[in-house]
Amino acid sequence: MIRLLLVDDQMIIRQGLKSLLESKPDFVIVGDADNGESAIAQVEVLQPDLVLMDVRMPVMDGVAATEVISRQFPAVKVLVLTTFDDDEYVSQAMQFGARGYLLKDTPLELLANAIRSVYQGYTQLGPGLFEKFLSPLGHSTTPKPLNPPPEFAELTPREREVLRLIAAGASNQEIAESLYIAKRTVKNHVTNILGRLNLRDRTQAAIFAHSFVSLLDTSSSESKKVEF
User: DSSP of 119-179, one letter per residue?
Assistant: First the structure.
């Protein structure tokens, strides 16, 4: 069972989410809160697996609450669920530890799958939000040339190909199928990539990859011939 805490300043939203999510046999709603400060207190007492967090709330907003929860209760995952796709909120929430950012009009089945995915350690972003996260201003700009850090050169061609697919949003299973390698091999590559580049998780890896996508595209053809 995945233990969920619902955080939203509107009671009708909390009640609606509770009714919908409890229809899924693997979800249980352990509590709810109407602001970020109350959510932190509830997390400390209830120890949920995952918090569905609204953004704009009185007393303390969801972004600030996400930062505190991620820092003080690292085992508790936060999935932001809001009506706002504001670029600044997307970027801040993810930087402060949110594992996903979805809009409230997300269909139930997609929301349920996103919850399960975040619970398993993956990152989830709704349609169009990944681009906003990568570009805080939300506008297409001509990127400035960047020089990769020295650690980039330590990546093998295969690791660069895996990194490119991570940036494209592929799961370990999808990467394995795309490269015709075992899933456990993909996991090893991901671990090596995070370690070599001193990255915390797949989200940071995707951001890094976006910055040097041209280098990854150049090396992708080589990886098909070199490593398995």
Answer: HTT--EE-TTHHHHHH-TT-S---PPP-PPPGGGGGS-HHHHHHHHHHHTT--HHHHHHHH
For 76, the 3-state DSSP assignment is: coil
Collapse the DSSP code of 207 into the 3-class scheme (helix H, G, I; strand E, B; otherwise coil) and give the result: helix
With vertex at residue 67, the alpha carbon angle to CA 42 and CA 82, rounded to the nearest 5 degrees, is 75
Both tokens assigned to 3: 């233990």
Alpha helices (H) in the chain, listed in sequence order: 11-21, 36-46, 62-72, 87-95, 108-119, 129-134, 157-167, 172-179, 183-197, 202-211, 213-226
pTM: 0.59
Place of tokens 């949110």: 98
What lies within 8 Å, CB to CB, of 133 at 6+ separation is 90, 91, 94, 101, 125, 207
pLDDT tens track for 50-80: 999 998 899 898 989 999 999 999 999 999 9
Residue pair 81/102 in contact (Cβ under 8 Å)? The answer is: yes
Q: How far is 87 from 179, CA to CA, in rounded Å?
A: 34
Amino acid of residue 112: A
Whole-number Å distance between alpha carbons of 151 and 188: 17
Contacting residues for 155 by C-beta, under 8 A, at least 6 apart: 163, 193, 196, 197
Distance from chain centroid for Cα 104: 16
